[in-house]
Amino acid sequence: SHSLPAVNNDKIGQAIDSLQSALHLIKAASNQSGPWVDARHLLDETVAALDDAGLALQCQPLRNSVDMTRQFNTDEHHIRELADEVVNKRQRFLGGSLIHDTDGIWTKSVYGECDGFSFGTENDELYRVPDEEKKEKALIVYASQNGATKTFAKHLCKSLGGDTYCDLRNMSGIMAKDLAMYKRVYIVCNTSGLGRPPCDGEVFYSHVQLEAMRCQENLEDLAIGDGDEEKPLAGTSVAIAVWVDSSSPDYAKFGLGLTEELVSLGASTALKTITVDE
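Predicted structure:
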């Protein structure tokens, strides 16, 4: 039998280790009893693992024996299976949007050279809405695990004039671009501590974190600096109240983190983040 060149064994082993490490990170992110995993870190780690996979597939030598072909086919299949699992499982947090990898080694190894490959669409993109086009109605967003914040959100909507003056939405059904359509946004949600949003707020929070990263990169590319007036949530005022268990570690971390991310996207704060001890 023929042995494989060491360099390719190394790259195959590295790819498998990277993909398995990425899957462990996704599993940790899914653990409701564990701390929140920043979506930017999750994206970086999974993209790096997929690039290692693409590099391993690209750097294989010519197969000059049946044994080598059989072994490579087994390795290729394993790498592709792991890579597909990473892509599919990360969508729970990263969704389908914002994962643009047109220059990635994995994309090129699987799809070849292309002008653009994206998991998202233009409809997913967050952009600046002129003040005169923003809705006068207030947007009330809630995310609840026990119903308390949903009940509060309904009372808030009623106190502000009801459906005529407010839109009431569950956090699981919105994205950051929806906030940009309003002048006033109220967010009420609970947290389990450890910086985690409630389950129906996980995709929204991940999306906001990725949008904050993209916004910063765009400003740097345009050499605008801080450029608050150019940020996508400029002209939108937010107020956030979070129901917490103050006995939990980092009980206020999610509420404060969400506020920080939205401000980085250009939103102003109507008041400081409120924490309500359950």
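Summary: The radius of gyration is 22 Å.
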